[in-house]
UniProtKB/TrEMBL annotation:
Residues 22-112 form the Acylphosphatase-like domain. It catalyses: an acyl phosphate + H2O = a carboxylate + phosphate + H(+). Keywords: Hydrolase. Belongs to the acylphosphatase family. Its EC number is 3.6.1.7. It holds the Pfam family Acylphosphatase. GO terms for molecular function: acylphosphatase activity. This is acylphosphatase.
Length: 113
């Protein structure tokens, strides 16, 4: 009779842990009047990213993102290269990226000035 073998972790039920991150962003270019905020919310919802965005008085869109590291990276790539169909992104800046222990937003919202 062969000895019983167990594979490490086979019977263990561990929750999958994701590296959660938060980052502030600001997008420059033709981002007002082109539904940039609505498309940003739609993309964030698709990726499961939480946070907010809003138009600024100086013609940019700014906000904050929270989520898994992979989804935040995907959202950052979308913000700097895609945006809404009619937008013309000059650049996107990301600041204050940090690891977080928990999400503090329930969803992604559009804020009004």
């Amino acid at each position: 009779m062969l000895p019983e073998r167990s594979l490490p972790g086979l019977h263990e039920h561990r929750p999958v842990l994701y590296n959660l991150v938060a980052v502030d962003f600001e997008v420059y270019g033709k981002v007002h009047g082109v539904h940039f905020e609505e498309f940003t919310k739609e993309q964030a919802d698709k990726l499961g990213v939480r946070g907010w965005c809003m138009n600024t008085a100086h013609g940019t869109v700014q906000g904050q993102l929270q989520g898994s590291e992979d989804n935040i990276q995907a959202m950052m790539n979308w913000l700097k290269s895609k945006g809404s169909p009619a937008s013309e992104i000059e650049r996107a800046e990301f600041r204050n990226q940090q690891s977080i222990l928990e999400l503090t937003f329930n969803d992604f919202t559009i804020r009004r000035e």
